[in-house]
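Researcher: We plan to redesign the surface later, but first we want a full-length starting point. Tokens attached.
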């Protein structure tokens, strides 16, 4: 703006001025913005290194104006470990879908947390494999219809949804674990705080942090963007309740 007024809403400097390939109503765009805003606010653009996943957000290095690398499916925390150990002055983050983190990448994330790696991980949980056509993920809800569970996920055959945040919160060396959502502006503001805090913990050498972000996938869920937000609140949040699961530093202080 050149008339002396400041724009209220601006694109974060850490995001390229590009339209994304995400479907209408997809939560990845909002999650990207939250990560980029935190990078801007904490002045990390020159020292951040992002480890992108395989999944719909595999193309995210194109959207971010920070150093990024694409890890093999599920391996982002292992790649991030290497970067952080070799370049401890950098701020290293992983961004993973639930299929990426909770299926093929289960070992990498749990062991990164168990080692207390000083990295920041974001889990974008849409309870489905978005990119490959909407198959069941470990996070898929009981009775949820997917292309591989056309009659709904059956517990007796396919088990129950994995709650990664609850699992990681039990790991001794994990410092900070919180679950947030991008379904409405109020929750997006809370998510923004959590994303920023996770980066701050790394900056302060406090250890492993993870923020799980509940995120709509209207295409995979076969719903409109509006209906998918309502479905997220009514169903996903029931199984994946929002809130702080662990803050080792706050616990130690009390
Ligand atoms: C080693 C390997 N196995 C399987 C695949 C196929 N694959 C690509 S993306 C994906 C799942 C993506 O789902 P998710 O991580 O939940 O991300 P979303 O697309 O929903 O954001 C799978 C199984 C692959 N690319 N590489
Ligand atoms: S398939 Fe789902 S996760 Fe992938 S871009 Fe579309 S809405 Fe987003």
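Model: Full-length starting sequence:
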């Amino acid at each position: 703006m050149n008339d002396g007024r400041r724009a209220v809403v601006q694109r974060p400097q850490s995001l390229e001025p590009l339209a994304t390939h995400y479907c209408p109503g997809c939560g990845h765009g909002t999650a990207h913005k939250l990560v980029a805003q935190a990078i801007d606010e904490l002045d990390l653009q020159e020292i951040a290194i992002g480890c992108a996943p395989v999944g719909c957000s595999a193309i995210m290095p194109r959207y971010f104006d920070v150093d990024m690398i694409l890890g093999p499916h599920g391996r982002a925390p292992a790649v991030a470990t290497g970067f952080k150990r070799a370049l401890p002055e950098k701020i290293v983050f992983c961004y993973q879908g639930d299929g990426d983190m909770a299926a093929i990448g289960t070992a990498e994330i749990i062991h990164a947390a168990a080692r207390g790696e000083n990295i920041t991980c974001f889990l974008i949980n849409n309870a489905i494999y978005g990119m490959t056509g909407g198959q069941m993920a470990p996070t898929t809800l009981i009775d949820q219809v997917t292309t591989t569970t056309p009659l709904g996920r059956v517990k007796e055959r396919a088990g129950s949804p994995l709650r990664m945040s609850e699992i990681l919160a039990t790991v001794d060396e994990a410092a900070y674990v919180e679950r947030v959502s991008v379904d409405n502006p109020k929750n997006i503001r809370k998510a923004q705080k959590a994303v920023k805090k996770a980066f701050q913990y790394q900056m302060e050498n406090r250890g492993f942090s993870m923020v799980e972000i509940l995120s709509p996938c209207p295409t995979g869920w076969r719903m409109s963007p509006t209906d998918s937000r309502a479905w997220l609140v009514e169903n996903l949040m029931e199984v994946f309740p929002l809130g702080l699961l662990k803050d080792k530093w706050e616990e130690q202080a009390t």
